Amino acid sequence: xxxxxxxxxxxxxxxxxxxxxxxxxxxxxxxxxxxxxxxxxxxxxxxxxxxxxxxxxxxxxxxxxxxxxxxxxxxxxxxxxxxxxxxxxxxxxxxxxxxxxxxxxxxxxxxxxxxxxxxxxxxxxxxxxxxxxxxxxxxxxxxxxxxxxxxxxxxxxxxxxxxxxxxxxxxxxxxxxxxxxxxxxxxxxxxxxxxxxxxxxxxxxxxxxxxxxxxxxxxxxxxxxxxxxxxxxxxxxxxxxxxxxxxxxxxxxxxxxxxxxxxxxxxxxxxxxxxxxxxxxxxxxxxxxxxxxxxxxxxxxxxxxxxxxxxxxxxxxxxxxxxxxxxxxxxxxxxxxxxxxxxxxxxxxxxxxxxxxxxxxxxxxxxxxxxxxxxxxxxxxxxxxxxxxxxxxxxxxxxxxxxxxxxxxxxxxxxxxxxxxxxxxxxxxxxxxxxxxxxxxxxxxxxxxxxxxxxxxxxxxxxxxxxxxxxxxxxxxxxxxxxxxxxxxxxxxxxxxxxxxxxxxxxxxxxxxxxxxxxxxxxxxxxxxxxxxxxxxxxxxxxxxxxxxxxxxxxxxxxxxxxxxxxxxxxxxxxxxxxxxxxxxxxxxxxxxxxxxxxxxxxxxxxxxxxxxxxxxxxxxxxxxxxxxxxxxxxxxxxxxxxxxxxx
Length: 648
Fold this sequence. Notes:
The chain is mainly alpha-helical. 76% of the residues lie in helices and 0% in strands. The chain has 32 helices and no strands. α25 runs antiparallel to α26. The longest helix is centred in the N-terminal third of the chain and has 20 residues. The protein is elongated.
């Protein structure tokens, strides 16, 4: 105690604790002249601890010391002692929290005219909110809001008014998340807006960040595009106002990434996808290697880059997506909540990369990480069906590559289990049923059993029946149902199956909301089946004509040149088949036109781009950009559903 006093600094709680207990024990155990002094010193030490660290104080002294404090008639001392509790927040001792709230209640009553009454009242509101967070007594939360509203109202010119409004907004947001009253969320947003507007110091950045989060939260309730647009604008302001190298900059960039991704998912604008990727990369660059926040950032960045690859077919994006997901898995704690999702995302990216490059090690790794993603999950896990779906997709891809029967059976098991886990009303059920259709057909081709073919057709019909008209996946599901009928026709030569196959493929080819690649393949399959079963070439010629005329849409301008060439190479020979059929149908002019169209897709597109697209951009540049974004959204790969190739 002497050394601590001589140092000139504030005496620590540890010193008070040791000295107080030694004096208290000697008071209890040692009679004599020292008794009065020991009790006096012990009481002085514990009086300083009873509010901030009550667990260190002997139980016999708690009530006496609190009464002494309240009877001392020094309200500002009560305020000082209570304020020492606030910085520890959730970690504060429950008794200390109760004592501090009691002191502030008395201080507010004792200082009705004090110039800092608003700040004192605000501290009381903060402590009430902290106690609600710990004990979940709703009366504390209502009291916190009420007290903080009074603090703001009583402090129109106070220097700390911005902080008070921020504390009020935080309590209102907490009450909204507890009771789900939209009025609380609206009031919290207004309070943060006012706090940011009147604050010029470093706290303004924090208020902007919190405001962006609440606008994003309200968008989740109202689906208001204005809230989402404002959330992006406010989050961007928070980033701009945070200096490079500041420890909060990574969090600000992460918020910006999240809102850009939400708007991308809602609207499909490429600028938002790029904005989310750029913000995630910048946030990652500011985050030290040892911080736990690197894992979700790496995971999100990998998934965003995979999505962009599916839009523009830039191989560098796909390679980066794989590497970021791998880094995320290496950085993740063993029981990280998002680890299974990241494993699943890596499996998806590796499967897509195998389809692009054909490297078998990608496929084996995809199976391994997808199996890890589904391991040790129970039926109550809401994401297990999606992960099982991806595992089935990866195993099916490896079966197609290696023809290993165990992969097919495991893919069927995973997909069947996913169907079992999904509720009958789930919007994802139709996609799983079409996957099940393709797997049953593959097994039917192996086993030759009629039951497999019949079950495949039934699953395909159920999938189509469960898909709303105009749904982007309806084309895939019609394509697969047609292929199921075609395989059954190939096996037993029933004319009804051939007619059903042609009808379903014709529907898929005509769907403007379906992926262009699916439409091309459906039209091609329809034409080939018509050639096989219909002596008149007119139906086949119509199908070929539809397929060839879709090729310019398939390799549209939003796909970069290597991606365009790769997409067109998957339909090599189509124009020649179409021209041959047109000649058979005595449509020689059409044959020449189809050949020219098929061989000149990229050249014609280049010429058109110098005229029509330029004119559109000159007249309405915003409309031209939006047209490209919509096309990209419609043509993005749907990687969770299989597309079954029709029989040759």
